[in-house]
Design a protein that fits this description.
single chain, 246 residues, alpha/beta, Rossmann fold, 8-stranded mixed beta sheet, 11 helices, 8 strands
């Protein structure tokens, strides 16, 4: 497929290398320009371009940018053809994104994003930590393969997104509509807890909407207090998340 990826953060980088390595035609852009994109990301054939080029003449656009930057990108994203599959990987962290009243009052993050860009989208790759995403990919059928939830309203968005998740080395589990995607937001039992395909459905059911933001903020405070300016390794982060979120 022809795929445009916006963003070269930790999740974006892995998306570029995995999807281009799987044989997809990948273009990638960041906010600083194509000359600033690490050449190693292009080893599998991905091309560094500007943002407008990245979303032109593609079948899929993946937004892997911080949630607070989505309103600035909205005019460009709203011009994408209706049939193009748009996938969002973002999460809301008030300590990073600033306070967004609508989300603080209970609006589902994915619905807020869809509202900003004025079009349907799918939610994927938001509920896996970047270390696990980078290091724990497994082939289809491996008993240790991690699964991640995806949410979408349109059947084609769901089908394409689930196939691409598999191409990145993880099982995809249908988590329902965008309205249901609060179940995979930060603080929920499936969020960065490295569950299997069989474990995710019950974890989704166990999610408590009013508790997840509190747990999200508690884990950030705990990590800051315990690790300071450093960040825990991937396995430590998974253990912390499981202890608090599940």
């Amino acid at each position: 497929m022809k795929i445009g990826i916006l963003g070269t953060g930790y999740i974006g980088k892995t998306l570029v290398t995995r999807l281009s390595g799987a044989g997809h035609d990948v273009k990638v852009a960041n906010s600083r320009g194509p000359d600033t994109i690490d050449r190693d990301l292009l080893a599998n054939g991905a091309r560094a371009v500007n943002a407008k080029e990245a979303i032109t003449d593609v079948e899929v656009v993946i937004m892997s940018i911080p949630l607070d930057r989505i309103p600035d990108a909205a005019p460009m994203l709203s011009a994408i053809p209706a049939e193009t599959v748009v996938i969002d990987t973002s999460n809301y962290y008030p300590s990073r994104d600033g306070s967004i009243d609508a989300i603080d009052q209970g609006q589902v993050e994915s619905l807020w994003v869809a509202e900003q860009i004025g079009r349907p989208l799918a939610k994927a790759w938001n509920a896996i930590g970047s270390p696990s995403f980078a290091n724990k990919a497994k082939p289809v059928g491996d008993p240790d393969r991690i699964a991640i939830p995806i949410a979408a309203d349109r059947d084609e968005d769901r089908r394409v997104t689930m196939a691409l998740v598999s191409d990145t080395g993880f099982d995809a589990v249908d988590a329902g509509s965008l309205a249901d995607s609060w179940q995979q937001q930060p603080g929920s039992p499936v969020y960065c807890t490295d569950l299997s395909r069989d474990e995710i459905p019950s974890a989704l059911t166990a999610a408590a909407k009013e508790r997840s933001p509190k747990r999200r903020d508690i884990i950030i405070s705990a990590i800051t207090e315990r690790f300071g300016d450093t960040y825990p390794d991937g396995d430590t982060l998974v253990r912390l998340n499981r202890a608090l979120f599940m």
